[in-house]
Write a structure and sequence with these properties.
heterodimer, A: 472 residues, mainly alpha, Arc Repressor Mutant, subunit A, Methyltransferase, Methionine Synthase (B12-binding Domains), Chain A, domain 1, Regulator of G-protein Signalling 4, domain 2, 4-stranded antiparallel beta sheet, 56% helix, 4% strand, disordered N terminus, disordered C terminus, B: 246 residues, Methane Monooxygenase Hydroxylase, Chain G, domain 1, 66% helix, flat, signal transduction inhibitor (chain B)
Chain lengths: 472, 246
């Protein structure tokens, strides 16, 4: 007994639309007047009707659908590959030969179907039947599958044997010709549904699983939802590429000097010179930061806050201005957002006690609406409950304290103090590589080339060579 | 004894299931006809009767707490056989509904698939119903009228199977089959004989091998043997006369 997953949902499984189309073609071929021309298949003594040649199939397709021969060949090839027509001469080769090779239609029960997939039980019964008929002479892969099935559905193996015998007995009741046809049909069916190893399985769609959207009914509900989706899409904010490219260019220009790949790293590229001075000088907390780093603090507020040293400096400044609680609050909120889930509640409590409660030690100045919302949210604290308040304080600092900091003496002194590391001196030996640009980046090469071009174009300039030389 | 009774009933159900499948395969093809639809209907009803009988018997046996362990294992095995049979029946019934709807018989242009099967399925149905000859007495609109009955019966069967799964506590995977792999080759009964002759029909060339034992060719071979013996006797008599003459 297989686990009955088909109990409720299986009844609604759909037949793939391509199969339904092929079925329609097959049924059209059966028309007594306009259908296929049938011949008789002559075996030694028995004559079996309803055989057709490949050539006839192609001719009929060309005639009925007014298509070219190539297309008819392709279409009929599909019909054979999907098992609606099976070859009589070489049953294992599922191709359509446009000559006199005979084919026959498959009975509807054995049509390929996604709605009625072939089950393991049926395959086991088929193999058992074949075993009986051939006295054990199955093909290699059939033998392996047989033993595999015997292991897998061992509990119903008695049933398999019983049913196989009974089905053979039932088929004995029919005429010889019908028996032959029945066997051919079954063989064709299982060649498609359980193809021999190495053969392409037409039912295996892999990643290109087709969309069985036959379930979408084109009624007014469907169209209403489509209209709604399109309307929402219209309202989306779109930026012209000219505008966003402009800001991108500005950003690139601003950061050009700070990019170690584009500009080279002072004192030297550690990967090349094995000198880790660059890293030690730019580490999180140094007594004296590099100049580039301090310059970056003036680019945007986020840059300042992301840099540990920058935050410390900013904190010192704010303490002088008596608005340090803003930064503390902001840092505490960040801690909640990025910290452990188990401690969220206690952290939220602490923030409330220190920053938000009326009369708190370090009370932050938030507008009443945000304050109400936050207090409401604190009752059910989660990771992002402080987001609105944090955003408010962030913008407060950005608009107010940050510009003043950049103009302050504290910052200017820091900038003056900042060091510009010296390039490692060229060594005495003339043929040792220069460290800074020793690994010429393609950008460097291009930049040099264009500059040389530019200078060459300005023809007749005296300092051409020296200008080009000084850029290197 | 309960066990033997069960086994015979299960065999009967098995036989009917096999015949039913055979009949459904013929649906929609050129061997489809009024008669086939009626045969399907009667086989189906018989299958259902047998199913209900089997189920009541087996459930009563399984509910009995006082049976021994081997007995219980045996009944569980029979139960698994029964439910597999019902599975096949259910699928075949659903498919026959679908194909029956797609291929109605009483339409001006019948588009039955020309599969090469042209014989009738009377004998199969007779085997299923365990009668000698089938009598056909249905009306001409059986193909549409029957479909409604079929739908009811399908829902009945589905319901029964669900009840079976819920109420009977049998773990199918715990059952061990009695037959080992390849068991069908042993005790090679009547199935082997004529079907062996039909080997390699569908293989490389449509070669045909005549096997003995099928009904028509059996009769022909007996005739041939008789004629041969007559000729041999005549030849012997003539030879004797010739020798006597000379």
């Amino acid at each position: 007994m297989t686990i009955n997953t088909l109990a409720k949902g299986g009844w609604h499984r759909e037949q793939m639309s391509c199969f339904r189309k092929m079925e329609k073609v097959i049924v059209a071929m059966q028309d007594p007047d306009m259908g296929m021309k049938m011949r008789n298949q002559r075996l030694l003594i028995t004559v079996i009707p309803h055989a057709m040649t490949g050539h006839d199939i192609i001719a009929w397709l060309i005639h009925s659908y007014s298509i070219c021969e190539e297309e008819a060949l392709h279409l009929s090839g599909l019909l054979v590959r999907y098992g609606y027509i099976y070859p009589l001469k070489e049953p294992r080769s599922l191709v359509l030969r446009p000559d006199e090779s005979p084919y026959r239609f498959q009975t509807p029960y054995f049509w390929t179907s996604t709605r009625w997939p072939a089950s393991e039980l049926d395959y086991a019964i088929y193999l058992a039947k074949k075993n009986i008929r051939k006295q054990g002479e199955l093909m290699e892969y059939e033998k392996t599958r047989y033993s595999l099935l015997h292991k897998r559905i061992n509990h119903t193996w008695d049933f398999v044997v019983m049913q196989a015998r009974e089905q053979l007995r039932a088929s004995k009741q029919r005429r010889k010709a019908d028996r032959i046809v029945l066997e051919c049909q079954e063989q064709a069916y299982w060649l498609i549904n359980r193809p021999p190893p190495g053969a392409h399985s037409v039912l295996d769609m892999g990643l290109e699983r087709p969309n069985t959207s036959a379930g979408v009914t084109l009624n007014s509900e469907h169209y209403k939802s489509e209209i709604e989706t399109s309307r929402r899409a219209l309202g989306r904010n779109r930026v012209k590429s000219s505008i966003c490219l402009e800001s991108f260019v500005k950003y690139s220009e601003q950061y050009q000097n700070h990019d170690p790949i584009m500009q080279g790293s002072l004192p030297s590229n550690p990967w090349i010179s094995d000198d880790t001075a660059y890293w030690t000088m730019n580490s999180e907390m140094v007594p004296i930061p590099t100049r580039l780093r301090v310059e970056r603090w003036s680019f945007s507020f986020m840059e300042l806050l992301n840099d540990g040293m920058g935050r410390r400096e900013f904190m010192t400044y704010l303490e002088k201005e008596f608005s340090a609680e803003n930064l503390c609050f902001w840092q505490a909120c960040e801690d909640i957002k990025h910290g452990e889930s188990s401690r969220i509640i206690e952290k939220v409590e602490m923030i409330y006690k220190n920053f938000l409660a009326p009369g708190a030690a370090r009370w932050v100045n938030i507008d009443s609406k945000t304050m109400d919302k936050t207090l409401e949210g604190i009752r059910n604290p989660h990771r992002f409950v402080m987001d609105d308040a944090q955003m408010h304080i962030y913008f407060l600092m950005k608009k107010d304290s940050y510009p003043r900091y950049l103009k302050s003496d504290l910052y200017k002194n820091m900038l003056a103090k900042a060091i510009v590391p010296q390039e490692t001196k060229k060594s005495v030996f003339p043929f040792v590589r220069r460290q800074r640009h020793s690994n010429p980046s393609p950008a460097q090469a291009v930049a040099q080339a264009t500059e040389e071009d530019g200078h060459a174009k300005g023809a007749g300039q005296a300092g051409t060579n020296s200008a080009a030389g000084s850029n290197v | 004894m309960g066990k033997d009774e069960c086994k015979t009933m299960l065999d009967a159900l098995n036989k009917v299931t096999a015949c039913y499948r055979h009949l459904v395969i013929a649906l929609g093809s050129t061997s489809d006809s009024q008669n086939l639809r009626e045969e399907l209907k009667r086989t189906r009803k018989k299958a259902q009767e047998l199913a209900v009988a089997n189920r009541t018997k087996l459930t009563s046996l399984l509910k009995d707490k006082s049976i021994s362990k081997e007995d219980r294992a045996e009944y569980e095995r029979l139960w698994v056989l029964f439910s597999s049979s019902m599975e096949l029946l259910e699928v075949d019934m659903k498919r026959s509904l679908e194909i029956g709807q797609d291929f109605p018989l009483k339409v001006p242009t019948r588009h039955l698939i020309q599969t090469g099967m042209t014989g009738s399925t009377t004998t199969v149905a007779a085997r299923a119903m365990s009668v000698q000859n089938m009598k056909y007495e249905a009306d001409s609109n059986i193909d549409t009228a029957d479909l409604r009955d079929l739908q009811c019966e399908i829902s009945q069967v589905s319901q029964m199977m669900e009840e079976m799964e819920m109420k009977v506590q049998v773990a199918p995977w715990a059952v061990e089959a009695k037959q080992e792999a390849g068991a069908e080759l042993k005790s090679n009964m009547s199935v082997g004989n004529s079907s062996v002759g039909v080997i390699s029909i569908c293989e490389e060339e449509p070669k045909e091998e005549e096997g003995g034992g099928s009904r028509d060719s059996g009769f022909a071979s007996i005739c041939a043997v008789v004629i041969f013996l007559v000729i041999v006797t005549v030849a012997v008599v003539l030879g004797y006369l010739v020798i006597n003459m000379s």
